[in-house]
Amino acid sequence: MSWKSISNSSYSKLLGHLETKKEGGEDIYRMRVSDSHLNSGKFAHGGFLMSFLDNVMGNAAYKAFGNKPCVTISMSTNFTFSASAGDDLIAQPKIERVTKTLCFVSCQVLVKNELIVSGSGIWKLVNWKTPKTLQEKILADDGGW
Description:
The chain has helices spanning 10-15, 46-64, 134-140; strands at residues 4-5, 19-23, 26-32, 70-79, 88-91, 94-98, 102-111, 114-125.
């Protein structure tokens, strides 16, 4: 299967061109490092790598929840090396566990088959409610939006 672009949100578009494909029944993600992703040492900025991980693992959690929106609760990141402009970041997230409202995900990011960063995190299913006006909220006093 060929790569498919999934950079749909405004932030994802700002971050860069994120692609995915199925390989061996698993989702694989790719993003090319550009000059705009580099720090002053000419390596991929750690914040960029963390954002890439967050997008990849968040997308995996979204799918694990049956394509329902979710948000990052916590995420840890471990840096082994970095990447340079032109490198392709390749990631394959792994769903560790899913509960009714939480999804636990881990992921490794490779460049040229070498581990450069890994991470794990927890995503929470979003409980979408009909938006309320401030007046409706005060009247309902339900404790949350």
